[in-house]
Programmed cell death protein 4
Amino acid sequence: ELENLSDAPFSGDEENGGSEERKTEINGNWIPATSITEAKMNAKAKRRLRKNSSRDSGRGDSVSENGETLKIGVVVPTSPKGKLLDRRSRSGKGRGLPKKGGAGGKGVWGTPGQVYDVEEVDIKDPNYDDDQENCVYETVVLPLDERAFEKTLTPIIQEYFEHGDTNEVSEMLKDLNLGEMKYSVPVLAVSLALEGKASHREMTSKLISDLCGTVVSKTDVEKSFDRLLKELPELVLDSPKAPQV
């Protein structure tokens, strides 16, 4: 009977201790298994704490009790209300584009092609000036200098040799601010005609006649021919028959 009792799967002590904690012998000491499990978990948490603190040192981060790093000044959304204030994409796949296509906010131009209404003048505005409503703005054309004069009028006269319309040349010259260079119009026209055909010289004579009194005065024409006679030695270099012509 004793042998049968010894071969039984549970002895008396084991049967009575079924509900008690199992113990493990370590270095001659009996320690409960639950204490060992807790010690392992605490050691693992400490290792994780040391690893995170060494990696995030100097960045101003703190470590929570669970071992998770937290940015200073950042509130972790723990409630649905906190998640609503989060501007990150719900799906986490934003395209990186600005909200409203760059049209929202203060001090922006708005969407391309947007048409704004005419802003009404506020009389109560401290910067309001009564004289602004009575102002008349005109386009100011600067007078042409010698270099700009020749560069601008040469193509006009050359085109005149093609179409022969003196009215068109007159309208184009009126849009220019010739200033003191008015007398140079006949000078340039005759100089270009000397290098061209006989028909160009006849057209130049008609052009000077039509421009006299509208664009240039008789005094300007007299001054222009005086200058042509003075520059005759230079004109002979390009047109040998210039004195006879």
Observations:
- Confidence is low (pLDDT under 50) at residues 1-21.
